[in-house]
Amino acid sequence: MPSLAGNVNKTMEAESVGLLKHMLDTELRRAREENGFDIALFLGVDGRIFASDVPWSLDPGQYRLLNLVKGNLNHICHQLSGQNMMMSIQQYDVGTIIISGVGDKAFLTFLTTRPLEVTKMQGVLNAVLTVSMVMKHLLDERGMSEQELSRHSPEVAVELKKLSRALFVEKFEETRGYKRNMEILSFLKKRLQALVGVGPLEEIVTMAFNEVGTSAAYMTESHWDRFLDLVIAEVGKIAGETSAERARNEWVPEVRKLLKSFV
Predict the structure, then answer these.
(1) 7 CB contacts (<8 Å, ≥6 apart)?
(2) Could you tell me which residues are beta bridge partners of residue 97?
């Protein structure tokens, strides 16, 4: 696993359906925990559940609230899709249900059995609105560049940055870039070992990464170009210029092929 030391500011965008689902799940869980909700649901206006955070066991109050949502789901979906409902607060003797639209295709539902006074709910409602904007950003598959984030309020931008950072920490090894770099490194180490032996292998690889200024996990195409120049130069010193030229003719095209295969 790559060390994350020195990479505290690295973030990542969801580049696959699986990573997008992870981000939606993570944001929903964070919203539920940080705001003291018991249950959190993210649904489409057609009733499909995109993500949920529900305890394994429910007490009677939580179970009743969840059943209220299920029983009213068709009505809720109609209000959101047909009437453009933006937010709804429903209070019962067992607790509160907060519903917030996420664009015109989805909505969030938060349930809590703890007492909430309507006059003192502004902080909670602001948090729900922030989460709604975050989920909309993710659902629209928008990027995480500074330009994209600047279109949001500071609260939404900060939450998106936190989420993107969490994705980097938790799922970086599942990205195409990481897998590509590990395959390239494996290929080069095998070829290099055949020419220089086991001992010089690690010394050459370590030297090259130090010169390039990054580790294998974060290599870009230009990094690999520099890495190849450094390594092949060392091959020339140890195995001779003929071997170095043969290595260049074989390794460079193969590395470029691997770089393109993961795009």
Answers:
(1) 168, 218
(2) 90, 111
Token pair listed for 222: 């230009």
Q: Give phi and psi for 15, each to the nearest 5.
A: -105, 5
SS3 sequence, the chain?
Answer: CCCCCCCCCCCCCCCCHHHHHHHHHHHHHHHHHHCCCCEEEEEECCCCEEEEECCCCCCHHHHHHHHHHHHCHHHHHHHHHHCCCCEEEEEECCEEEEEEEECCCEEEEEEECCCCCHHHCHHHHHHHHHHHHHHHHHHCCCCCCHHHHCCCCHHHHHHHHHHHHHHHHHHHHHCHHHHHHHHHHHHHHHHHHHHHCHHHHHHHHHHHHHHHCCCHHHCCHHHHHHHHHHHHHHHHHHHCHHHHHHHHHHHHHHHHHHHHHCC
Which tens digit of pLDDT belongs to each residue from 150-164?
888 889 888 888 888
Residue that wins the pLDDT comparison between 111 and 179: 111
Which residues are within 8 A (CB) of 71 and not within 5 positions of it... i.e. 6 or more apart? none
The residues pairing with 96 across neighbouring beta strands, listed in sequence order, are 91, 112
Q: How confident is the model at residue 17 (pLDDT cuts 50, 70, 90)?
A: low
Mean pLDDT of 72-77: 85
Residue 147, strand partner residues: none
| Helix-helix angle 241-261:221-239, to 10 degrees | 160
